[in-house]
Amino acid sequence: MTSIMIVEDDEKIATLLQEHLSRYGYKAERVTDFTAVLDVFQDIQPQLVLLDVNLPMYDGYYWCRQIRRHSTCPILFISAREGQMDQVMALENGADDYITKPFHYEVVIAKIRSHLRRAYGEYAGGGAERRVEVNGLTLFPERLELAWQGKKVELGGKEALLLEALLKRPGRVATRDVLLEILWNEQAFVDDNTLNVYINRVRGKLKELGITGLIETVRGTGYRLKPPGEEGV
Known about the structure:
It is a single chain. With 233 residues, the protein is of the alpha/beta class. It is 39% helix and 21% strand. It contains 8 helices and 12 strands. The strands form 3 sheets. Strands 2-1-3-4-5 form a 5-stranded parallel sheet, with helices on both faces. It has a 4-stranded antiparallel sheet with strand order 6-7-8-9, with helices on one face. A 3-stranded antiparallel sheet has the order 10-12-11. α6 packs across α8 (194-208). The termini are far apart.
């Protein structure tokens, strides 16, 4: 039976979610100790997590990051926060989807089924963890981690997407338009400086690994990644 972990401090909503999921044949388990969400996750080993943003002690973004360090299972946020930045924060911290309250239970069930199919069912990959590597610099997109010569740094969701796009084009220019499309799809909602901000964040993460000069700015066009080991890295 598929196990789903519910991390929701509103007892009424958590109970209704649990009852509804049970009717559809899922084993729904609620977290009641919000200081030990990761411990409960590791005990239960669920196939999917429903996670609220506003929680006692630590918020849902924190717990999403902690879970992502151990698992690539689907994580769906359910929150009353409707702002665009709240949804961006959720995705950047490792979530797979974001559902706003109030919600229809049929929509929640449909999204759960969709993500379970993609993670484990007919749309799932071969099961091996994805990695993108160039000259020993290795990106693990599913766990939001970058590794180099025994060192590792954690990444935000957009940082991982940006690095993946550049690592797949070593030595070639990735235009700003291409990167904006990969990162946001809807370019109209992104100002001119947003991509620059994320490029600088990625450069900062590379610097933590002892790498500098890896991402070159091609003025008026975009960015290019030099494979590690070349001059300036």
